[in-house]
Specification:
Blueprint (H helix, E strand, L loop, with lengths): L1 E6 L4 H8 L6 E6 L3 E7 L15 E7 H4 E7 L6 E6 H9 L4 E9 L6 E9 L5 E14 L1 H5 L14 E4 L3 H11 L5 E6 L5 E9 L14 H15 E3 L6 E4 L9 H7 L5 H6 L2 H8 L5 E6 H8 L8 E7 L3 E7 L7 E7 L4
Antiparallel strand pairs: 1-5, 1-7, 2-3, 2-6, 3-4, 4-18, 6-9, 7-8, 8-9, 10-16, 11-12, 11-15, 12-13, 12-14, 16-17, 17-18
């Protein structure tokens, strides 16, 4: 098998590796003729349980032209190569690329002692060039069967999100959630289809019998009070300090007709589309909040993706189940980094 490529000047390969570094000790990478995929899962073996919920997952599939130039991959498995590498080792190579004018990556060595070798060309202020060679060990080269048994590339099964909302700048959110650390271990993320999102400190799951009934009158003050109570009823309030940050005027991306069609294939597609959770909520309950509880440490791992300087980040909430973050890496929206955080149980 052969792999050789010149990294794009945007260094997106390194940036994605840096973004997933906090998810797990290892990152799985698939090199295919048309794209490169990344996958990482945080398991409790990666770090202490206090550092996260233990089930956060991240994956990305990026077109080759967004990451490499002069790219060539060859193997007996449909010209696909799967490798497992340590994220911290890739980060070391990234640190050497700060003033690089060119970076060539190639797979070297035998399967049992394989490396991903980066030849980094740097220019000094006098215009002289010198090369730095970084050999990043490959933990394992996976067979096609071995890769299929690795869940890092598999998107988890989940219900349909009911609220999609575009996030404020990630560095701003990172600063806010850092200030929450001493107040509580958990954060409730709430959002509606009217451009409002809230981050509230919490001590975790709370026993409850259900959400309060929907207020059908048109009193906006009462309606807003009901919405805020929905968070308090389901999740316990942080005892140390109750902190809440509220954002308004955010953009709610709408589901395209194609997305709805893809989710509702079959003879009863039209009927199912009428019952699509997003459309039902948009039509009848746009003011109501959807809330998901996450560990603050898990949210911090997602916010690490600010290093890729994303064009936009969309948060999708599945009530009482999980939350997704879609990090768009370019304007074409064909390169995304996706994070999945399930709501902690117990």
């Amino acid at each position: 098998m052969r792999l050789r490529a010149k990294l794009n000047r945007n260094l997106l390969f390194f940036k994605i590796a840096q973004a997933v570094e906090k998810i797990g000790k290892s990152v799985y990478i698939k090199f295919a003729p048309e794209f490169v995929s990344f996958g990482a899962i945080h398991s409790l073996g990666d770090s202490d349980q206090a550092d996260g919920g233990g089930a956060i997952q991240c994956w990305s599939r990026v077109p080759i032209e967004s990451v490499f130039i002069e790219y060539k991959v060859e193997s007996t498995a449909d010209n696909e190569i799967y490798v497992e590498m340590k994220t911290e080792d890739i980060s070391l190579a990234n640190k050497s690329s700060t003033n690089a004018s060119a970076i060539v990556m190639r797979m070297t060595g035998k399967s049992s002692e394989a490396n991903m070798t980066f030849v980094i060309t740097c220019d000094d202020h006098m215009g002289n060039s010198h090369e730095i060679t970084q050999n990043v060990p490959i933990i394992k080269i996976l067979s096609t069967e071995g890769a299929s048994n690795t869940s890092a590339f598999d998107e988890p099964m989940m219900p349909t999100p009911e609220v999609h909302i575009m996030l404020p700048p990630l560095e701003q959110l990172k600063h806010i959630t850092n200030s929450y650390k001493t107040a509580a271990d958990y954060i409730v993320i709430s959002a509606n289809l009217q451009g409002v999102m809230m981050l509230t400190t919490s001590d975790g799951m709370h026993q409850f019998n259900g959400f309060p009934g929907t207020n059908n009158n048109n009193n906006n003050d009462d309606m807003e009070q009901d919405e805020e109570n929905m968070v308090g009823v389901k999740y316990s309030i942080a005892e140390k300090a109750e902190l809440e940050t509220r954002f308004s005027g955010l953009f709610n991306p709408s589901l395209s007709d194609q997305t709805l069609a893809d989710e509702n294939d079959g003879e009863e597609g039209a009927k199912e589309q009428e019952e699509h959770p997003y459309l039902e909520r948009l039509r009848n309950r746009p003011h109501e909040f959807v809330s998901v509880l996450v560990k603050g440490a898990d949210l911090q791992k997602v916010l690490q993706s600010h290093c890729v300087r994303p064009m936009n980040v969309v948060c999708s909430l599945i009530p009482n189940h999980s939350i997704l973050f879609y990090v768009y890496l370019n304007q074409m929206e064909d390169s995304t980094l996706t994070y999945f955080i399930p709501e902690p149980r117990g």
